[in-house]
Write a structure and sequence with these properties.
Layout: H1 2-27, H2 34-41, H3 45-52, H4 55-79, H5 85-102, H6 104-110, H7 127-144, H8 150-169, H9 175-189
Length: 195
């Protein structure tokens, strides 16, 4: 019975986040109201607050969910290039940049205020997102490239994540060229010889 309740609660949470995603993509995070979200999701405001908490917690949950989805795509991109660190990182970074450019939630983030909108999860409060991304990427890199010492690997992963986030926010080159540059930086940090 407890497992059934957990499943129902998980499905409810996903439904609420899917509804919030649609509202934020259409109207922006600044215009999101918890009462509108409850109505659109077909639940009471009490249920909404019990499941997701405050509007800030909704924003953080939406952003964290997108980071996790992005990391799954990045892992698939990395896996397509076993043994070739540069090609793997370039493919993963290009995937992330193209995903961000096409993602309605990311676009809504950029149109929101830094202080009260979702943009702060990438600028002034990025710790949770970076921690998730760095942990996933480091775990993958440890298995794929065990010859890289842990300190260099950690620095390379951190550089890849933070440079990619920087290029998501503002890039002066195409996704492919940004990805190539980031991959070259990561390879050098990891101790791979220059091409």
């Amino acid at each position: 019975m407890a497992r059934f309740r957990e499943t129902v609660r998980s499905l409810l949470r996903e439904h609420l986040l899917d509804t919030a995603y649609a509202l934020v993509a259409e109207h922006g995070f600044d215009r999101l109201r918890m009462s509108h979200l409850a109505t659109a999701a077909g639940v009471s405001r009490q249920t909404l607050y019990s499941e997701l908490g405050s509007k800030d917690e909704v924003g953080e949950a939406l952003f964290q969910r997108e980071v996790e989805r992005c990391m799954r795509g990045i892992e698939l991109s990395l896996a397509r290039h076993p043994g070739d660190l540069r090609a793997a990182v370039a493919a993963a970074v290009e995937f992330a940049l193209r995903l961000a450019a096409d993602n309605p939630l990311v676009q809504a983030m950029f149109s929101s205020s830094v202080d009260h909108g979702m943009l702060r999860y990438l600028t002034t409060r990025p710790e949770a997102a970076f921690a998730t991304a760095e942990a996933a990427a480091d775990a993958y890199a440890a298995g794929a490239w065990p010859q890289i010492d842990p300190a260099s690997r950690a620095l390379a992963v951190q550089a890849a994540i933070r440079l990619t986030a920087s290029h998501v926010m503002q890039s002066d080159t195409s996704p492919a060229e940004s990805a190539r540059r980031i991959a070259e930086s990561v390879a050098r940090i990891a101790g791979y010889p220059a091409r």
